[in-house]
């Protein structure tokens, strides 16, 4: 029991931190919300500091229910970084509206605990518990701004569709348990290897993949994404687009490779369909969007499609490419949403139209330059760093004899580049719109600058650091 608890130390740190900060929120009230937020960032940093040491030791906790390996460690660090960025974003955004509550950082911590369980799941039941813990906190976060009808609507939509996805996932888990006799990933894999894939097991695989696909917002389970991203408070949207996306993609990868490895032929067809549909719809549907948050929602769907190409490869290179992709994706996405946070009129009210970016290069040169870097990087245009992870997933697909899939991905990448370049054109070539109101949030400015530098050509200097970590993490699944 002691060894098992030691392997789950990051989750224990987050749990204790969340409980203590919840009590602090109850007694201190909302006037100390910012102090509690910085304390939550400290808790996330402390949890992240313990992750590498636990990954080095490695091991399986609670008789296989929880796995502490380098794959989980890589994903957890990314999740904690994205969660901390969402807390920094919220600290400056909610202030003007006067509705920032001390419960916000506690909900982020609780969601992070669920995501940690997701990426370390070694059993279908652990998977489900982690997913639900993350989701329950997310439903509240989506409707956090209670005075805004759009936020309440976003929370309701997310809850109803999330409940449907949870039911689908649970039905798939029950089918796999019924036909394989176990919920442990290793035992399910052995059953699929020894007995072949029966019709019942195939249905179980389909339902489990469908339930997880909802969390990564892959087509055709993407329907909630544009509405929830638009309606939720912008810092919450930044959180949804980064941390849960990383956790769900890591979970999907572990389930597919570890739990369903012998059924690769069967699940690969499903993943290829989701990858193609996501890249195509994410590239085409965003073209006519007038709202920047909806456009970034379709951008998120598009990027998930590219990551799924790496999963379709079903090899070590593909998994490594997914992890590298998600690391760069977090920086690009969080940076983009931090720019959206700066889009406020003189009265301090949020402005979300793409038209409001017109002529930004003449009214706020640094902000326009940072946004241009993020857009070029999301489009995968060299020499921006966003090009490299796309190259890695396409290379992995070619190595797996899926050259045609890589070719389609390249074509859809060119389509999606249109709307990214459209934003750059709007900022640099259109007549200036009314200037945004002044903002003096230093932590946000530092985050924007750091993310822009990371996804600029300077990011290539980080390859010798990130690539070995991603390769080592991918090896843990094979």
From TrEMBL:
One of its GO terms (cellular component) is endomembrane system. It is found in: Cell membrane; Endomembrane system; Membrane. Residues 121-416 form the NADH:quinone oxidoreductase/Mrp antiporter transmembrane domain. Keywords: Cell membrane, Membrane, NAD, Quinone, Translocase, Transmembrane, Transmembrane helix, Transport, Ubiquinone. It is a multi-pass membrane protein. It holds the Pfam family Proton_antipo_M. The chain crosses the membrane at residues 12-29, 36-59, 71-90, 102-119, 156-179, 202-224, 269-288, 295-314, 320-341, 367-387, 402-421, 442-463. NDH-1 shuttles electrons from NADH, via FMN and iron-sulfur (Fe-S) centers, to quinones in the respiratory chain. The immediate electron acceptor for the enzyme in this species is believed to be ubiquinone. Couples the redox reaction to proton translocation (for every two electrons transferred, four hydrogen ions are translocated across the cytoplasmic membrane), and thus conserves the redox energy in a proton gradient. NDH-1 is composed of 14 different subunits. Subunits NuoA, H, J, K, L, M, N constitute the membrane sector of the complex. This is NADH-quinone oxidoreductase subunit N. It comes from Allosphingosinicella deserti.
